[in-house]
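It is worth pausing here to work through a concrete case rather than discussing structure prediction in the abstract. The textbook approach is simple: state the sequence, then state the predicted structure, then interpret. We follow exactly that order.
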Amino acid sequence: MRPRDFQQWAERPPEEQVAHQVSDIRTCIQESFSRLDSSTALRTSYEAVISSPVRVLSELSEFLGVGIVDRATLEHLHLTPSGARVESHLEKRIVNALGSCK
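Step two, the predicted structure:
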């Protein structure tokens, strides 16, 4: 997405162009949100999703008026980075059993 005034930044160093682009996108998003009724928009952040996924998913579910999953299921949610290997429940039991043999 190009900043609204990208032509004025074309000759600047790439780092400055990127910083300006990020700043302009944030400004555009903030301006757009300010025009919305607060009941039609839900704000969150990447940091909130990572640090409190259960809270964010609960807020999202409530905001949308849908039941994504029940609270008990959310409490046992563990996010795994994309591409990471996920240990199955059976593997976890085997590892725990082997660990107790030491």
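Step three, interpretation. Residues 40 and 63 are 9 Å apart (CA to CA). Residues 45-79 form one domain.
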